[in-house]
């Protein structure tokens, strides 16, 4: 038995450099995607870095998104009244996974299971938070995702 601790998802995927490469390349693809381009047409040049910081924190890395960008309430506010649909959500998830493959990110079953689990969970929350009448809970905690998360039903 090894005394070595289990790495965080953040460590396993290669840290901030890997996440920045992923989100930068992903949003290059998004700009050319017929289903997603209009959703992100007004995104600023810093958007990929903000998403990388968010994912880093969710996956066990530094808390930069919370300390510098407003944490989970800020992310929720970015989706309010955007009226996202399941077709856009599914395409977002598939394109992100295709980009991870393109960049040679880890593809072992354990990591991909955790990644897909988070992307499905998080993207479905984004759709919920994008509908009319949704509000940002200013106390919403930052999601934390590991190797085998089980979350209860979203009741927000």
TrEMBL record:
Under the heading Gene3D superfamilies, the entry gives: Globins
Keyword Heme assigned to the entry: answer is: yes
A Pfam family reported for this protein in Swiss-Prot or TrEMBL: Bac_globin
Q: Which UniProt keywords apply?
A: Heme, Iron, Metal-binding, Transport
InterPro entries xrefs: GlbO/GLB3-like (IPR044203), Globin-like_sf (IPR009050), Globin/Proto (IPR012292), Hemoglobin_trunc (IPR001486)
Q: Does the keyword RNA-binding apply?
A: no
* Recorded superkingdom: Bacteria
The membrane-spanning stretches of this chain are none
Q: Which family does it belong to?
A: Belongs to the truncated hemoglobin family. Group II subfamily.
Q: What protein name is recorded for this chain?
A: Globin
């Amino acid at each position: 038995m090894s005394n070595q601790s289990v790495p965080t998802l953040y460590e396993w995927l290669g840290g901030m450099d890997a996440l920045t490469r992923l989100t930068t390349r992903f949003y290059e693809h998004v700009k050319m995607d017929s289903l997603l381009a209009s959703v992100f047409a007004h995104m600023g040049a810093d958007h990929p870095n903000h998403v990388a910081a968010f994912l880093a924190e969710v996956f066990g890395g530094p808390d930069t998104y919370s300390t510098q960008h407003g944490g989970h309430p800020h992310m929720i506010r970015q989706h309010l009244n955007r009226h996202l649909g399941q077709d856009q959500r599914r395409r977002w998830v598939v394109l992100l996974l295709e980009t991870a493959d393109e960049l040679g990110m880890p593809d072992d079953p354990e990591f991909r299971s955790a990644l897909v689990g988070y992307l499905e969970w998080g993207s479905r929350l984004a759709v919920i938070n994008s509908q009319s009448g949704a509000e940002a809970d200013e106390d919403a905690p930052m999601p934390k995702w590991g190797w085998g998360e089980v979350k209860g039903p979203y009741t927000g």
